[in-house]
Amino acid sequence: MRRALRLGLLVLAACSGGIKTPETIPVAPGVLPAIPAAIAPPVVDTSAKPAAGGGEAGPALVAADWPLTQRVKSVAGEHAMVVTSHPLASDVGVDILRRGGNAVDAAVAVAFALSVVHPVAGNIGGGGFMVIRTRDDTVRTLDFREAAPSGATRSMYVDSAGNVLASSLTGPLSVGVPGTVAGLFEAHRRFGRLPWKALVAPAVLLARDGHVLDGVRSRQIGREAERLARFPASRAQFLVNGEVPPAGTRFVQSDLARTLQLIADSGSQVFYHGSIAELIVQEMAGGGGLITRDDLARYRVKWRDPIAIGYRGYTIYTMPPPSGGGVTLAEIVNVMEGYAPLPPFGSARLMHLQTEAMRRAYADRNAYLGDPDFVEMPLSRLLSKSYAARLRADIDPQRATPSPPAGGGHSEGTETTHFSIVDAGGSAVSCTTTLNNDFGSAVTVTGAGFLLNDEMDDFMTAPGKPNLFGLVQGEANAIAPGKRMLSGMTPAIVLDPAGRLFLVLGSPGGSRITTAVYQVVSNVIDQDMPLPTAVAAPRLHHQAVPDTLHLELEGFVQASIDSLEAMGHKVTAWNYKTEVNAIGRAAVGWIGVADPRRGGGAAGY
Ligand code: DON
Predict the structure, then answer these.
(1) Assuming Cys at both sites, which of 123, 303, 376, 595 could form a disulfide with 579, CB separation 3.0 to 4.6 Å?
(2) In the predicted model, is pLDDT for residue 42 greater than 60?
(3) What H or E segment, with its residue span, contains residue 11?
(4) Using CA atoms, how far apart are residues 203 and 89, in angstroms rounded to an integer?
(5) How far, in Å, from the CA of 435 to the mean position of ligand 1?
(6) Ligand 1 center–CA 151 separation, angstroms
(7) Residue 434: which of 409, 412, 453 has the closest Cα?
(8) Are 103 and 422 in contact (CB under 8 A)?
(9) C-beta of 11 in contact with ligand 1 (< 6 A)
(10) Mind listing the pLDDT tens digit for each residue in 284-297?
(11) How much is the pLDDT for 4?
């Protein structure tokens, strides 16, 4: 209650432009929620200062001119809230909710709308994960991750010198069997209230009548224009007379409108067995891709038990494998739960501990995780508090632990999208969906107007070699026919200690998704930050390999950065490539925050 009230007050402050920016983000000194004795972990006293100094006692340390503090906006809603990567998609979701739809109905409508207005990541040719909390307080997760085609082989992307070929990222060979349409159809079949057709209809209209392209989406097309132009159907779909359409262009997608109308009329059948399947297979055959009619016909979504992580009395529900997100998040928070009091946000002491927790969690992710239908994983051990205690015991509070050597930096051009929804009945959906790279494989299905993913690159494409995100992964994630590639997506729903819906959040960002989600959760729970501040706060990321600490450098104070370097961390700059779209409980009802790092929007009522 206390927290709800405070969030509510801060909503009002945020709505009236009242977020202050003095020297630091105005965060109350960390007030940790009471931890019931039964679940309180053994704690490590963190009051000792690192040898390198840093002088971190006191309030949060955020650079005075960190621009996101100014840019973050929040929306308050008494009953319901939708936060997505595009304001038009958020409006579609709220409209469905106002018409009596529930959170799953809104999720279906939003996902289809994003495939039209946010084509860099929104999709019907990709896959994703959905965490659903229904009114009866049950949490379920739906896996509609892509699967490797039956013709896929372990070393299909490796040349004779052992290097990974570009065909894992661009062109028909990079495409996994899409899961999105089957996933949305199944979510609706199980939980939907409004007719399916009514949920696809807004997307049909946006594609058929067009929408006004904004600057964000125009720039996204601009950055990938060369890649898109290699494929005639993509060129026709996204470029206008061979040029990048400027902001303000009315963007009409007639082929996509026809495809969406077919899906509205016939459900997922037409996509996996009918005329759309035929067009996908033709596209594959014409360009050396592997997906067959059988691959499409055999594709199945899977309901899976969520991973539930207890954290200082809160419960975080998120995805199990084939997303590595949940296990990685669990390891990070379990390690961090053992430190109390947590040092202030932005202090070298806190950043060091977080980095070391991340390093260990990602090392395990890369070594052990894969598709549960193909590999045995020591999940109960990895998820246990006792294992976290062992990891914690190995962390030197004063020095960075070197990761084992392996290579690779990571690209910054990659796309996924997350949306969060809460309806007036208290149901919630947290959904992350992806094409992987920006505009996926860059292949648009000729005659059908939608992009195909390049999710095959999420497998271990070659032993010891980094993927698009610099992840160097293990045998557990080797390619096999029908197998799902390991993901980092971490859609999450957090309940407060009273069991009430508290946060709904997730992010794109490849390997950085999990650490972004962790930091927002920790900022709210541990640092007592209001949600807009927690989302705007600068982020760090470490993934074991490469052994590099990525920082939103302009957001942290120099003394902390200097301390981290003195402790042995290899610090490097990393720009705003995650996008946490989040909803939090507030006294007014709900507060929605679209990450100011990208071009999303929140809408509620
Ligand atoms: O599933 C995964 O982990 C990746 N394919 C997600 C890609 C992603 O988040 C790119 N977005 N920025």
Answers:
(1) 595
(2) no
(3) helix 2-15
(4) 9
(5) 7
(6) 24
(7) 453
(8) yes
(9) no
(10) 999 999 999 999 99
(11) 38
Three-class SS state of 455: helix
Ligand 1 close to Cβ of residue 320 (< 6 A): no
Which ligand 1 atom is nearest residue 437's CA? 10
DSSP state of 17: T
Q: Are 493 and 473 in contact (CB under 8 A)?
A: no
What band does 404 get if pLDDT is binned at 50, 70 and 90?
A: low
What's at 442, amino acid-wise?
A
List the residue whose alpha carbon is closest to atom 2 of ligand 1: 487
Measure 576 CA to ligand 1 centroid, in angstroms.
Answer: 15
Cβ of 510 below 6 Å from ligand 1: yes
346 lines ligand 1 (CB under 6 A): no
Closest CA to 383 of 339, 326, 340, 321: 326
Ligand 1 atom, smallest distance to 325 CA: 3
| Domain definitions of the chain by residue range | 2-24+49-66+307-401+489-594, 76-304+415-455
- Give the side-chain half-sphere CA count within 13 A for 304: 25
Q: State the catalytic residues.
A: 416
Ligand 1 in reach of 436 Cβ (< 6 A):
yes
The torsion of the CA quartet 148, 152, 155, 160, rounded to 10 degrees, works out to -130
Q: Atom 11 in ligand 1: which residue has the minimum CA distance?
A: 415
Nearest protein CA to atom 6 of ligand 1, as residue: 510
Task: DSSP for 145-168, please give it.
Answer: --B--TT--TTTTB-TTSPBPGGG
Q: Using one digit for the tens of pLDDT, what is the confidence trace for 20-29?
A: 222 222 222 2
508 pocket-lining for ligand 1 (C-beta < 6 Å): yes
Widest pairwise Cα distance in the chain: 66
Please provide the CATH number assigned to the domain covering 2-24+49-66+307-401+489-594: 1.10.246.130
